[in-house]
Each structure stands twice: as C-alpha cells, then as structure tokens.
User: Which sequence fits this backbone?
C-alpha cells in the first residue's frame, strides 16, 4: 500500500507528471519534459526508459537546436480519441491517437437546427464508419470530445440557451452520444473548442492567454486564461456576441437590442447584400468576392471587422489577453477584416492593453473545432489509466 510521501508514491507521481506533459503536448524531447515538469534530466531519462519498456511511450530520434535528441510521445497503441463537431450547417468527425496524430477525418452537410435525433444518428454513423476505416477496434476508444454551437450549462450538462438551438431544447448532448457509442463523452461549445484547437495546434501555440473569436451564424468567443479554457460558473463565459453596441439597434435573438451579433453574424449581415447580389449568398462567398475586389462585399467585411473590434476592445479592457485569434470563414478575408479589428481595438481599448495584443487569423480554418474536440479528450483523460497495465484496452480513461 502506498503512503503519502513514500518513495513509491513519489515515483508514481513523477511517472504521472511525465505522462501528462507528453499527453498534453503530443511529443516532447527529454530536455523539454525536464523543463516542463521540473524533474532532473537523470530522473526524466530513467522514467522515459521505464515507460518505454512498459509500452506506454514511444521514443524516436530527432534534433533540437542542431543537436541530436530523442522525441517522446504516447504509444500509438495506447488508444484513440474521437472528435465530433456539430456546426449549424455541417457535421465533422476526426479520429486521433494519443500522440496527437489525426488518423481519419470527414465532414458532411447537416442542418443541425432541424432535429437533435437526426444529428446524433448521423454522428453515430460517421464515427463508426471512420473507426472502421482506420482498422482500429472500437474497444480502443478512450473518449469522445463533442462540440455544439451553443452554451452548455455546467450543472445539468444541457444546452443553456434554447434560442440558439430550438430543436435541441432539454437535450444533454453528452448523455445522448455516450449512450449511442458506449464511451465517455466530454462536451463543450464550439468557440471553446476552437480556442483549444488553435491553442494546441494553431495560431495560439506558445501563449497561455488568448481569445478565439468565431463568427458564423452567431458570434462567440473561447477564452483561454493561464493555459486553461475559462467557462465561468454557469458555462456561459465568452458570449461576446451579446455585448451591446447600440441600445436602439436591431432586436437580437436573445431578446436584447443592438448586440454585436446583430452587426456581425451571417444571418444579419447577408441580407444587406441581397439587393445588389441576389439571394443565396454565404459568408464564404462574400469573403471570396471581397478578396476579388467587390466594393460592396469589401465594405461589409470591413464594417463587420470594426464591430468585432469593438467587442475585442472590451475583452482587452477586462482580461488583457496577449492574442486574439479570428476563426470561422470570415478569417479567410485576411487583412480586409483584421485591419479594421485592430483599428477599433486601438481606438477603444486601453492603450497599454492594445499595444500588447496581436490579432491573427486562425491557422486551422474549419478544422479548429473538431481538433479542439480531440484536444478536449486529451486534456481530460486520466494519466493513471495509461500507467495501469492491468486495466484492459478500451476501459474509460477519464477521471
């Protein structure tokens, strides 16, 4: 029996520290493990050797700073994770291993507003098809990350706003998908997962505080503080789309007037261009036309950027992030939208906060949320399970 402070418990704690560092990063050199865990190089070397002999990690030759080094990652046989992203018009699923490698990925059109049952049916089918395509048994799944376009009530696990997904009223997404797949499911809103995806794989790498702004049918923000997603006590942190810009403005779906969303979201912006461009426009098409020089589309994109910048300025004054990452199709407009965002930030934010802020387009495009769903599982799964050889493959690895 292990007792606190014993050599056995200390060794176990060090094993878990090394496994956690590798799990969160995907792969690290032994020197990087030592820096991130605070353990000595000799201790890390011994632990890596032990984990390699036990089949928990894989070690491959690499180079760092021009010198030979060894890269450590979790074993590809240790298990797989699944990411599911429900957008308002699409369903995207990705399969990854514990070494942060994406093994399979597919997206298909889906009207998620229509029916939650239809959405979960399609998700179940797509997950099973991709798992079969990888040739890996479903017993290797250690968890599923699920993204939905709405806030999650942290106490009940249900969608916190029926105004956003009326067809999903009273639905607990985690329970629904877990019941179908038979594995643990962790759920979060799409903006939070976009932030997590960019933090791990994209434009947020190397920082510990950022805001990921997603502009689609709504406007939301995923907030990262000290390297962790900040959700707030009720799970609604980051609802930047409902910052009031004009008390006499258009009525928002939340019931208030003049929310940022009514000046920036696709459902409010696209009708502005219908008289000149006709029906059937999408934000993707508007961005494409703006990049090609269409004056109307360029003006609309710039106006949206300025409005988003006002919301970002409020974030700067409250949270002082060092980086803002713009996601969604609007990010493809590049400087046509980023320059107006920066202009509003410099005008409305505290100068010291504005000077320290960098505004970047997302690096992952439409994949940010589904990769964030994979990262959610990787961040939540427990390290003890990976170290317990007596636990059979497929046993849920969450704490």
Assistant:
């Amino acid at each position: 029996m292990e007792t606190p402070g014993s050599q056995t418990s200390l060794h176990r704690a060090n094993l878990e520290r090394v496994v956690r560092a590798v799990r969160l990063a995907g792969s690290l050199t032994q020197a990087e493990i030592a820096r991130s865990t605070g353990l000595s190089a000799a201790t890390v070397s011994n632990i890596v050797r032990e984990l390699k002999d036990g089949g928990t990690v894989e070690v491959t030759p690499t180079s760092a700073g021009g010198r030979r080094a060894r890269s450590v990652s979790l074993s590809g046989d240790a298990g797989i994770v699944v990411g599911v992203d429900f957008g308002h018009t699409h369903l995207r699923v990705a399969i990854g291993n514990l070494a942060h490698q994406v093994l399979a990925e597919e997206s298909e059109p889906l009207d998620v507003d229509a029916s939650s049952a239809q959405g979960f049916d399609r998700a179940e089918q797509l997950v099973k098809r991709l798992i079969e395509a990888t040739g890996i048994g479903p017993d290797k799944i250690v968890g599923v990350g699920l993204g939905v376009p709405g806030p999650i009530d942290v106490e009940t696990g249900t969608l916190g706003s029926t105004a956003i997904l009326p067809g999903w009223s009273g639905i607990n997404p985690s329970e629904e998908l877990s019941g179908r797949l038979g594995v643990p499911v962790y759920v979060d809103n799409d903006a939070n997962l976009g932030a997590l995806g960019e933090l791990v794989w994209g434009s947020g790498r190397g920082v510990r505080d950022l805001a990921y702004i997603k502009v689609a049918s709504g406007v939301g923000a995923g907030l990262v503080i000290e390297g962790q997603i900040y959700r707030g006590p009720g799970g609604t942190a980051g609802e930047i789309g409902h910052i009031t810009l004009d008390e006499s403005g258009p009525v928002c779906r939340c019931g208030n007037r003049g929310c940022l969303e009514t000046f920036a979201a696709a459902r409010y912006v696209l009708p502005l261009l219908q008289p000149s461009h006709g029906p059937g426009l999408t934000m993707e098409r508007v961005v494409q036309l703006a990049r090609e020089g269409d004056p109307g589309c360029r003006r609309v994109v710039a106006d949206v950027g300025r409005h988003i910048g006002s919301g970002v300025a409020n974030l700067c004054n409250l949270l002082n992030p060092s980086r803002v990452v713009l996601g969604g199709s609007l990010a493809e407009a590049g400087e046509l939208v980023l320059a107006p965002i920066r202009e509003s930030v410099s005008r409305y934010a505290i100068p010291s906060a504005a000077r320290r802020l960098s505004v970047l387009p997302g690096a992952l495009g439409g994949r940010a949320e589904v990769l964030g769903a994979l990262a959610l599982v990787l961040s939540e799964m427990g390290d003890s399970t990976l170290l317990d050889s007596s636990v059979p493959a497929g046993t849920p690895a969450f704490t």
User: Anything to note?
Assistant: The chain is about 40% helix and 20% strand. The first strand starts at residue 27 and ends at 29. The mean pLDDT is 87.
